[in-house]
Amino acid sequence: MVKRFLSLEWKSFIRSASFGKSLGVKILIGFFGLYFILMFLGMGIGMYPALKKIHPEQDPLFMVNNFLFYWILGDLIFRFFFQKLPMMSVKPLLTLPIKRSKIVNYVLGKSAISFFNFLPLFAIIPFGVTLIMQDYPLNAVLIWMLTLTIVTLIVNFLNFIIESFSIETELSFLPIIILTTGLFALNYFNIISFTDLFGKGFNAIYESPIFIIIPIIILIALYALNFKLLRKRLFLDSGLKTKIKEVNTSNLEWTKNFGDIAPFMQLDLKLIWRNKRTKSSVWMLVLGLFYGLFIYTNPNLKESVPFFIFVGIFSTGIFLMNFGQFIPAWDSSYYKLLMSQNIKYEQYLKSKFTLMALSVVIMFVLGVPYIYFGWKVLLAHFVSAIYNIGVNSHIILYGGSFNRKKINLDQKAAFNYQGTGAVQWLIGIPLLLVPMGLFALLYYLLNFEIACLIIAVLGITGIVLHQKLMKIITKKYLESKYKMIDAFDQNN
Amino acid sequence: MITTSNLSKKYSGNEVLNIASLDIPKGQSFGLVGNNGAGKTTYFSLLLDLIKPSAGFIKSNGIQVNESEDWKPFTSAFIDESFLIGYLTAEEYFYFIGELRNQNKADVDTLVAQFKDFFHGEILGQKKYLRDLSKGNQKKAGIVAALIGNPEVIILDEPFANLDPTTQIRLKTIIKDLAEKQGITVLISSHDLMHVTDVCERIVVLEKGEIVKDLITSEATLKELEVHFTGTGV
């Protein structure tokens, strides 16, 4: 049966319409994976000698044990954002003679062989081997390694429980942030010393292996809880059916000021506000706004002027990049309607453009307090904003005409790779790096003012040529109309 | 009103539609029947310029649909759920379509009010997004949206499927009324021979992409269609 499930998933992967593109993304993710493996491997090998060198008087193993609390917290956060419960389309299986428990066991079992669970092994095994070579008792070290593997699995299943609860809430990442920072704070202010607790616990297991029973019991309990939660969701009336909330309608009269693009702007605003996926790009605004603080408070980066432009483009343009890169895929589920309706493509695109330009202006205004870090920072942000409106917004709209991947709006948002083709990854690079590179070049060759001026002039040129550029972009969209309709018509 | 000439659609060499000539006069209620894969939806998609013809063309009111967009103001359609915007309520959706078709809210309200019976109290004032309505109710909303803005050509793909019997009967009245009283050209496709013969003045049978029968509806039509579809052994 497991073999059959696996073959079903393999087919859904290779037979998907966007197979080529998702393969590209998979390769990219593969590279990230390789990078992490190497990092963990380095950590596993280098940990023992490094710790011995820094604190020769302490036992490296006990030091690692003390550190494990942070490892678990970090792992939990990391998994929350990147690891999703492997889902399969369960609905068609429900009416077939397959036991529900079998489906649940399969899904949970599959999660156990996820990359996230193998990654720690790359650190644990070399570290363990080093310990054995340093004449630590063989059995105890093996038990210790086994314990860590179990702990990894505990985190694995704990994450799914947290996810299944937080998926219900509006700000889905709030619970995990509160939980982890809460634990961290309790530990940090010595109210409950988890580092100590965890350290002593692992030491105890190392010294008397019988205590391994405790993590095993926790693991079994978590698995059982997961099993119960998932099984409950396997009924059509609960998990598979979406909850219906009563909605409030607003008429957004103010958009009327924008004339003939008003209906599209209303639609876009509703699109953004009423779907989880798009809503997250609104929360990303907060990240964009405070991004500068990370850079400008860092004494190493504070003085490197080209970074001003990088921050400027990023923070004023974060919505532009986030929302813009999925134009027109946001509308993919009703693209056929738009194409057969009495609409002017140009108005449709102009509404998107206006929205992006507005976001840039708003982000710039909200970022004015950055003047605290000097007038140069603010000037750099100002020219970045102009550049974003004049150049980047047009580029991203143009790039959208290459979009061929449907976005399912209902899916849970952050770090959802759906709708992310290879083209979108590429488009982010020129948007940020081209202005920054150009600026750096001018800055080092000439001076700050001229560099700013050139960036601003580029932006203004774009704004002046707006009508012309929109004509070109519209034409491009019209040319790829049939291809887009066809691609957006395919699920998965 | 709608002229089709030498129209052909091929998918990787496989011809799925081939219509040498088909004329649909203004104000006719036109029915398209055929088994699965006969090319009904393909024809409608070509008519709406959602797919590209491999050869030939369709002219609507003298406008070749894949060359100019001027047919859009007088054409409306409901093909499937992808014509609905899931995150809008029914009212918002009607107003949105209305605005695209230069109708203000009052116009839309007046039009929609005529379909109170048809909605059966399950569409308007529900405070629900369209994506949360049942399939049948989604269809009702989509069909009525296709009537907004005084279109001259209305295209409905499988309008009767998923509807309850009461609504099917009401929909038949609506469609008949559109063609007879308002002179609107209505194109529908259906698997239900009884419904099509009830509603349409003319019925065309498609088989493997070709027209095999072109009938003006009469008493005998239903019988003839039944014989045809029994005979082909499907």
From TrEMBL, chain A:
<feature type="transmembrane region" description="Helical">
    <location>
        <begin position="351"/>
        <end position="372"/>
    </location>
</feature>
<dbReference type="Pfam" id="PF18940">
    <property type="entry name" value="DUF5687"/>
</dbReference>
<feature type="transmembrane region" description="Helical">
    <location>
        <begin position="280"/>
        <end position="299"/>
    </location>
</feature>
<dbReference type="InterPro" id="IPR043742">
    <property type="entry name" value="DUF5687"/>
</dbReference>
<feature type="transmembrane region" description="Helical">
    <location>
        <begin position="103"/>
        <end position="129"/>
    </location>
</feature>
<protein>
    <submittedName>
        <fullName>DUF5687 family protein</fullName>
    </submittedName>
</protein>
<feature type="transmembrane region" description="Helical">
    <location>
        <begin position="23"/>
        <end position="48"/>
    </location>
</feature>
<feature type="transmembrane region" description="Helical">
    <location>
        <begin position="422"/>
        <end position="442"/>
    </location>
</feature>
<feature type="transmembrane region" description="Helical">
    <location>
        <begin position="204"/>
        <end position="225"/>
    </location>
</feature>
<feature type="transmembrane region" description="Helical">
    <location>
        <begin position="305"/>
        <end position="330"/>
    </location>
</feature>
<feature type="transmembrane region" description="Helical">
    <location>
        <begin position="173"/>
        <end position="192"/>
    </location>
</feature>
<feature type="transmembrane region" description="Helical">
    <location>
        <begin position="448"/>
        <end position="466"/>
    </location>
</feature>
<keyword id="KW-0472">Membrane</keyword>
<feature type="transmembrane region" description="Helical">
    <location>
        <begin position="378"/>
        <end position="401"/>
    </location>
</feature>
<keyword id="KW-0812">Transmembrane</keyword>
<keyword id="KW-1133">Transmembrane helix</keyword>
<feature type="transmembrane region" description="Helical">
    <location>
        <begin position="60"/>
        <end position="82"/>
    </location>
</feature>
<feature type="transmembrane region" description="Helical">
    <location>
        <begin position="141"/>
        <end position="161"/>
    </location>
</feature>
From TrEMBL, chain B:
<dbReference type="InterPro" id="IPR051782">
    <property type="entry name" value="ABC_Transporter_VariousFunc"/>
</dbReference>
<dbReference type="GO" id="GO:0005524">
    <property type="term" value="F:ATP binding"/>
</dbReference>
<keyword id="KW-0067">ATP-binding</keyword>
<dbReference type="InterPro" id="IPR017871">
    <property type="entry name" value="ABC_transporter-like_CS"/>
</dbReference>
<protein>
    <submittedName>
        <fullName>ABC transporter ATP-binding protein</fullName>
    </submittedName>
</protein>
<dbReference type="InterPro" id="IPR003593">
    <property type="entry name" value="AAA+_ATPase"/>
</dbReference>
<dbReference type="InterPro" id="IPR027417">
    <property type="entry name" value="P-loop_NTPase"/>
</dbReference>
<keyword id="KW-0813">Transport</keyword>
<feature type="domain" description="ABC transporter">
    <location>
        <begin position="2"/>
        <end position="233"/>
    </location>
</feature>
<dbReference type="Pfam" id="PF00005">
    <property type="entry name" value="ABC_tran"/>
</dbReference>
<keyword id="KW-0547">Nucleotide-binding</keyword>
<dbReference type="InterPro" id="IPR003439">
    <property type="entry name" value="ABC_transporter-like_ATP-bd"/>
</dbReference>
